[in-house]
Every structure is written in structure tokens, then in C-alpha cells.
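Standup notes, structure subgroup. Blocker cleared on the adenosine monophosphate input:
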Amino acid sequence: MSQADAKNLLARPVIFLGPPGAGKGTQAKLVAKHYGVPHLSTGDMLRENVAVGTPLGALAKPIMERGDLVSDDLILRMVEERIARADCAPGFVFDGFPRTLAQAEALDGILKAQKSGPAAVIYFKVPEEILMRRLTGRRTCNVGGEIYNIYDRPPKVEGRCDVDGGELIQRPDDRPEAIRERLRAYHAQTKPLVDYYRAQGTLGEIDADASVPAVTGAVFAALQRLEKRL
Ligand code: ADP
Ligand code: AMP
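Run returned:
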């Protein structure tokens, strides 16, 4: 992809939307790195708060372990503070936000106030039966956050990150009971955002049941199509 294309695409923020396990984090890391912009995962931000023991982390921990959604109020405060930082000025890739209609409406208001234009939304479509395998097999590096899968994307050395040698850990919410609750929350609260953004004309849909490089290519192609339309 040329520099000119990259510049065009970052005319607006990008949102990766889809069920847990669809591959949003894996692709957001690659795409954000490609454009030199921050990857903003609200899940990662909350896990950092849990790890260092902030008051937000203490509130969020039991909710996340059950697989429920953290309140809109807390999420919006955290996101507003993050996107106000200087490194977000050239653009950013959201992964896991917004997750409710209230969050989407609040984000529209924030972007309007910033005069940054509507976000380009990429919807990751994956058959439900694939998600359980992706989530139960997920392992994450406790140093750099690199994402693996013991079935489909294993590290070279079991339990160790290929990039920095960090320990690969399983998220507490990747247990089957919590996964079921997260999928339920997705269908009840997040899936309606597909219609919300489709109605706004800002949605690009991709087949995320493909290899990692094939999905990356589909994301770039969808972003280019959207940029012509918006
Ligand atoms: P999300 O952020 O949408 O919850 P992740 O990016 O964490 O999803 O991916 C979930 C799991 O699926 C991880 O174990 C990851 O290694 C694996 N994965 C991601 N993309 C693919 C893909 N295209 N094919 C196979 N496995 C994938
Ligand atoms: P993720 O890393 O995106 O799978 O998110 C992990 C967990 O963090 C979710 O199951 C929720 O409990 C919480 N979470 C992350 N993002 C949000 C959000 N935008 N709104 C509410 N809860 C969130």
C-alpha cells in the first residue's frame, strides 16, 4: 500500500467491530503498526488497570471475569481521556469499542466535536462455531501482548513468545462459561451496532474466517472502498 493511500485512510478513525475471538486484536496490531497510529483496545486498557490495581481495575475485574460488559460511563471516561492524548492526533484503531449503542452515540458526539469526520467501521464476520476454538486456544504474551493460538497459531517454543520470550498466559475470561456469557453479551448489546453503522453508510464487511494475511488484505481493501464512499 502506498504512502498516499495510507495518508488518505487515516483521514478518519477506524473501528474494528465483531464478536469476541473474531481476530480484531490480531489485525488491529498489524494495521495500526502499518499506519503508525495507536491500537486502542478497551479490553487491554481494562486489563492493565486490573494488573496495576487501580480503582477502575478493581471495579472491572469481577465483571470481566464473568464475561459481562463494564458500564458505559466508566468505558467512555477511559476512552475520552485516551484519545485526547497527542499520539492519537494522526488517527487510531479501536478494537472492542464501541460495544453498546450508548457508546456508539457518545463516540459520534466526540468525533463531531473534534471535527474528525465519522469513523470507518470494519465488521469481522466469522461463523459462530469457529469462535469457541479461537477463544479457548488463545494465549497472550504477558510482556508485549502478542496473540497466539495453541491450535492455529502456535509459538515456536511451547508457552514462550516468539518475539520477546515472554510467558504465554490464558485470559481468565477465555474459560467456556465466561465465553458463553461474552457471546451472549455480544449478541444482545454489540451486534445491533452492525445495523447502526450500516444505516450511517460507514460499515465495511469482511470475511474474517480466513488466514491472518488474507484478513489483513480484506481490511485494507474495505478501508479503501469506504474512503471512496465517505
Ligand atoms: P478478538 O480481539 O477479536 O477477540 P484475537 O485477535 O484475540 O480476537 O484472536 C482470537 C484468537 O484467534 C487468537 O488465539 C488468535 O491467535 C486467533 N486468530 C486470529 N486471527 C486468526 C485467523 N485469521 N485464523 C486463525 N486464528 C486466528
Ligand atoms: P476484549 O479484550 O475486547 O475481549 O474485552 C474483555 C472484556 O473487557 C469484555 O468482556 C468486557 O468485560 C470488557 N470490555 C472491553 N471493552 C469494553 C467496552 N467497550 N464496553 C464494555 N466492556 C468492555
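Discussed briefly. The first helix runs from residue 3 to 9.
Next: hand off to the docking folks.
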